[in-house]
Amino acid sequence: MPNIHVSIPRHVQAVSLLALSCVLLALGAFGPSQASASHAQAMFFEAPRDLVAVTPAARAKALAQLQALGVKALRVELAWANVAPGAHSTKKPSFDATNPAGYNWSAYDGILFEAKRLNWPVLLTVTSPVPEWATASHKDKSGVIRPDDTDFKEFMTAVGEHYVGMVSLYAIWNEPNHPAFLQPQFNSRGMPESPRIYRGLFQAGYQGLRAAGIAKPKVLMGETAPVGYDKVNLRTEGRGALLHDVAPLAFLREALCLNSKYRKAGTCGMLPVYGYAHHAYTVGTPFYRPPMVDDVTIGVLSRLSGALDKAAAAHAIPAHVPIYLTEFGIQSKPSALGVSLAKQAEYDAIAEKISWSNSRVAAFSQYLLRDDPLGGAPGSSVHGGVIGFQTGLETFAGTRKPLYFGFPVPLAVTRQRHRFSLWGLVRPSVGATKLKVMVQPKGSKSYRTLKVVKTSSGGYWSFSSSVQGSHWRVSWRSPSGVAYNGPPIGAN
Question: Within a domain: residue 4?
Fold first, then answer.
């Protein structure tokens, strides 16, 4: 069998986000608009370095951690080039590309089989890099330039057959609006090009799953990065402009054959979209509102839901398509985009509350158990480098952050004039339960019990309090006697 090297490069926010973070610090945070609460959303956890292409012992250790943290569903990215024969050959090998036997699935089988054993739903995102022979030039070593639709359809047939009964949701491509995963993003006129490439890949992938015997595949569109450009200017920037991201809503429109007013070209049919997947990373606080209206961070989810409604009205997608926030995390120091470890725990819970409060959102997510190595400077992933994300619950060395203790019992505290709104979740619970909410009064060094709260059947709880405090924390004991004590949380 060929040696499988699993490299799952990640994007960082565009360099423009780094500059905008300074503006955010100057202007302060803006509160999100609240829709009616969804009261239920899936939580997908993604930990590629701990679960994919590792020893059974290492995977078992990571899964035991995730179980203790209350994880019940996984997102797995499957890179085409990591399983395909002759991935670095310019000539396609002679094999039946629709037959699973022609591929080496060993890097991914372990975690898919374990998820099946645990009865955990899996979102499988099939993505680049692709084999060189499946690119337009047949010699693209990066594996991201114009993947061939026909080859992808055959590959997705093999994926569907091999993992039959193990995958709950499929997604086509990871961040196709980012040049680290799909190129070209823009054409020579400076207009988006990647959305049209993506449309062909989505249709081919869906047809491939149908050919595998899945009558109605549940396929998510998008998996888009949060920020980018509607167009670029090659005259002022040169060819470097072609390596910018396409803004997610501009990408959505172009992929669905919609113009800027969401009117559809008559030659395009409706895409069979089960849901729209998006990576709503933010800068600084979760309340950040990017100034470019086609960007979508966690604080402006209504932009995405509004765009989906307009797309449905144009008959480009089915009505009421749900939103899946399939990759998310708050960066902590030492990332250039990171906040303090204490703020990471606070902001992650706030982001989850924002997601939960939006009835359109069907799933939230956490990216990374352990941090990546720090890696290169922002923007280096476009040139084949590795950035490194510090969104994990642990540092790269394995030290547990406050988020590790906050993740199973997230707590968000929001100021409301002279009162405080408290919201939280007991993630490891399997039904209604009770937990203790404690407050540290201003000027005090100790905590006292504020309230014993009963959760909903899904583990959620909320209440309002007039007690002035400097920090709050929660405590819960599982039926088996395991104590979960969340970190100190400040009000935002």
Answer: no
